[in-house]
Write a structure and sequence with these properties.
This is GpcrRhopsn4 domain-containing protein. It comes from Onchocerca ochengi. Keywords: Membrane, Signal, Transmembrane, Transmembrane helix. This protein has 11 helices and 10 strands. The chain has about 500 residues and is α+β, with helices and mostly antiparallel strands.
Length: about 500
């Protein structure tokens, strides 16, 4: 027995290790790589990262870290500067009018923040490095090699003593002359960069991998996805159990549609656990969006009386499916436009601040109005009071699910971008999970409200009647076979008796 337990525990440890390797090791912090030339732009914003507030008890290891390599394939004496700029000072770079500004006006605010041994000795923060760094060597400012992360040319440490804040990684083709004035680089600056950004020291393995490897607004998002993934597996098992408790005649299209919703939700959350992989993120969003659209279709069909009446065939509602298909196609079109062309993390533009996002919210409101009109019609046409009350509760509950998204957009507009992502993620995933769970409970085979689904009763009666007819046919067949056998036996007996009589007579 102990041998089997040890194998069982070992298998669980290996599974946990596998999940860690697949999910976490593929999402080690924010990594930015590429090549930049000053010929096209005077500066370039490489990344935006939310650095957390430092822990007073472990200030050294809870800081923000920016480390990596910035080198050049050619040596022409050209020099630029790499800066880590807080959001409070980055507006000058985000304004398109700054493209024509001189280096002195562009970097005048940075001079009061950054430290440089010769020209900026009063600077408080170590947020700049001259680039490119010498090939195969540390950057010039790295006078303490023991503090540089291994295999890196530079390591910058960001301190946020009071509150989390966004910082921007910027490369500028500017330098300080002998008079400590900012000047534009005359020669072309070409650099290859490979940088990592983390919340906390990458050398400290005791840090929470769901925290230090992500920007502040995405910290713990992997835990949320994994928790919902497990919960949807549990709900999926409950739905499977509900179907198994039914006989074959009770497996209606609404069960099939709900099964598709749960599978897509689970698949999308599993892909979202692979943080840092853009294709997985896109595919996960597509799966989650499709599941939400199917949930809208299921609720709208129910508001038309689907399964509450005498039939549960989707083909009886072709207009509903066609209109839903058009709205869903428009929803996906707006989603792709927002994902590839509009969504800009540098400008804090998300789904609630972009015109495609507003279009998606409008589609959701149209579906809510559609659901409301049809559920009211269904209630008014219902003659049984108890069923009308049930439909009223059903409609009111799921109408909240339709319209909460609009209210969430209003609330999110007042939230800081550092908190907005997690708030939206938690509320949307929780709302969808509650809606799916309520439907699983409503469709449960022993639910007290199941008698309101008339299609179930009619189908069950047809199933029982078919079984009875099959039983009667089978019984008649047995009686017929038995009668034929008796007749054959009687004929054989008579023939035998006649033969015997002739023999005795002879």
């Amino acid at each position: 027995m102990s041998h089997y337990l040890s194998i069982y525990n070992l298998s669980h440890l290996l599974l946990i290790k596998l999940i860690y390797c697949i999910i976490l090791q593929r999402s080690q912090a924010l990594r930015i790589t590429g090549t930049w030339s000053s010929r096209n732009n005077q500066f370039s914003i490489l990344a935006k990262f939310g650095f957390q507030q430092i822990d007073p008890l472990d200030a050294e290891h809870s800081r923000g870290f920016v480390y990596g390599n910035v080198s050049s394939p050619i040596i022409n004496g050209a020099r630029g500067v790499l800066l880590i700029v807080p959001k409070t000072l980055v507006n000058g770079f985000l304004n398109k009018a700054t493209l024509e500004q001189s280096c002195d006006s562009l970097l005048q605010n940075i001079s009061s923040l950054a430290f440089e041994a010769e020209c900026l000795p009063d600077g408080k923060d170590d947020v700049m490095r001259w680039i490119p760094c010498p090939a195969g060597k540390l950057c010039v400012e790295e006078d303490m090699p023991e503090k540089v992360i291994n295999d890196s040319q530079m390591t910058l440490r960001i301190e946020e003593p009071s509150a989390p804040q966004y910082w921007y990684v910027i490369i500028v083709a500017c330098y300080l002359d002998i008079h400590c004035l900012w000047k534009s680089s005359v020669k072309e600056v070409i650099v290859h960069y490979d940088l990592w950004l983390t919340n906390g020291s990458p050398l400290m393995h005791y840090l929470n991998p769901f925290g230090y490897q992500f920007s502040f607004e995405e910290q713990n998002s992997a835990e949320i996805y994994m928790l919902l993934f497990i919960l949807y597996i549990v709900v999926g098992f409950c739905q499977w159990r509900s179907v198994m408790l039914c006989n074959s005649a009770s497996f209606f299209p609404r069960h099939q549609l709900l099964n598709c919703i749960i599978v897509l939700k689970t698949f999308g959350l599993a892909l979202h656990c692979l943080n840092g992989i853009l294709f997985a993120r896109l595919l996960g969003e597509i799966a989650r969006l499709m599941s939400t659209c199917l949930l809208c279709l299921l609720l709208i069909l129910l508001s038309y009386g689907w399964s509450f009446g005498n039939s549960s065939e989707i083909l009886l509602y072709p207009k509903v499916v066609i209109i839903w298909g058009l709205l869903t196609s428009a929803h996906f079109l707006l989603f792709f436009i927002n994902f590839f062309f509009v969504d800009d993390v540098l400008q804090d533009i998300d789904i609630f601040k972009s015109w495609p996002g507003h279009g998606m919210i409008l589609i959701r409101m149209l579906q809510a109005l559609w659901f409301l009109i049809q559920i009211r019609r269904l209630i008014n046409e219902e003659s049984e009071e108890q069923k009308a009350v049930f439909l009223a509760h059903f409609g009111a509950g799921f109408l909240v699910w339709f319209v909460y998204f609009f209210g969430l957009g209003i609330i999110a507009s007042f939230l800081s971008a550092l908190w907005r992502f997690k708030v939206i993620l938690v509320i949307t995933t929780a709302a969808n999970f509650v809606a799916v769970t309520c439907l699983v409970h409503l469709f449960w085979s022993t639910n007290s409200n199941r008698h309101y689904f008339l299609a179930d009763i009619i189908s069950h009666r047809r199933f029982v009647l078919a079984n009875e007819n099959e039983g009667e046919d089978f019984e008649n067949l047995l009686i017929s076979d038995s009668a034929d056998a008796d007749a054959e036996s009687l004929v054989a007996f008579a023939a035998g008796s006649a033969g015997k009589s002739r023999y005795e007579f002879v």
